[in-house]
Amino acid sequence: MQRLQVSADNVANANSDGPLPSAPAAVQAQYPAAYAPQQVDQVETAGGGTAAVVSSVEPGTVVMFDPAAPYADPNGLVASPNVDYASEAMQQVTASYEFAFNALVMRVYSQIRKSALDILT
């Protein structure tokens, strides 16, 4: 479920922009930084299996034109989270399949265990 949570956070905060990292300290102190999106990678663990590892998306922000933002630089540029909606949709579909497969594994394990107990009794 970690994959789904990270993706949902990214989509919910995709429009949470902020001042550019190069903005003056006074501007950065007055306005929150742009949301920093995250990603989930499945990595192999020692002894078999996998683990979900959350890391920051690089680059975390992209420059966008928004001259109406109070923290925009003199050229009207702001930092916007680097969120790719197509990738996030894929992550959410992947999370639903992961959940379904995990539920199937639990069901099969339960059936095998029940069969083993039936054989022993």
Total E-strand runs: 4
Task: Please count the helical segments.
Answer: 3
Distance between the termini: 38 Å
* Beta-strand share of residues: 15-25%
Structure description:
The chain has 121 residues and is of the alpha+beta class. The protein has one domain (2-120). Helix content is 44%, strand content 20%. The protein is built from 3 helices and 4 strands. The protein has helices at 2-12, 25-30, 85-120, and strands at residues 38-44, 50-56, 61-65, 77-81. It has a two-stranded antiparallel sheet with strand order 1-2. A two-stranded antiparallel sheet has the order 3-4. A hairpin with a 5-residue loop joins strand 1 (38-44) and strand 2. The longest helix is centred in the last third of the chain and has 36 residues, at 85-120.
Can you describe this structure in just a few lines?
The chain has 121 residues and is an alpha+beta fold. The chain contains 3 helices and 4 strands, in the order H-H-E-E-E-E-H.
What are the SSEs and their pairings?
Layout: H1 2-12, H2 25-30, E1 38-44, E2 50-56, E3 61-65, E4 77-81, H3 85-120
Antiparallel strand pairs: 1-2, 3-4
Helix pairs in contact: 1-3
